[in-house]
Amino acid sequence: MVSIAFCHAYHVKLVFALYFLLMLKRKWQRGVWMNDYHERLAKLLLEKNDHLSYYQARTWVELLWEDFETTYARAGEEYMGSDMTEKIVKQWIENYGEKLHEFNATNPKYKHFLEQDKNTLH
User: Fold this and answer.
1) Which of these, 67, 79, 101, 106, has the minimum number of CB atoms within 10 Å of its CB?
2) Cβ pair 89, 64 in contact under 8 A
3) What is the pTM assigned to this prediction?
């Protein structure tokens, strides 16, 4: 007969294994797929705004991406996935992308990311 302690230990190991697999999936998704999303959006932003370097466009995309996901999570909304975030960030780029270079960062955390470097345009 199988003891309760054995069943409990097996269950705990199974839960940890599933959790580990989920974390690996998310890490891979963020590492590989996020790069594809960010790359597409950065190229779109560069098409809209020729005042930005590639690195600035990429930074803008990453900041907008994180801002949307953080705000959505704080509002207690269910995560809708990367496709939804891409859709929203793409909409922001379509609407505001041509003027993003005019944004004057006052937050020192971001200011150095967004300063124009004349030597690194495209």
Assistant:
1) 106
2) yes
3) 0.65
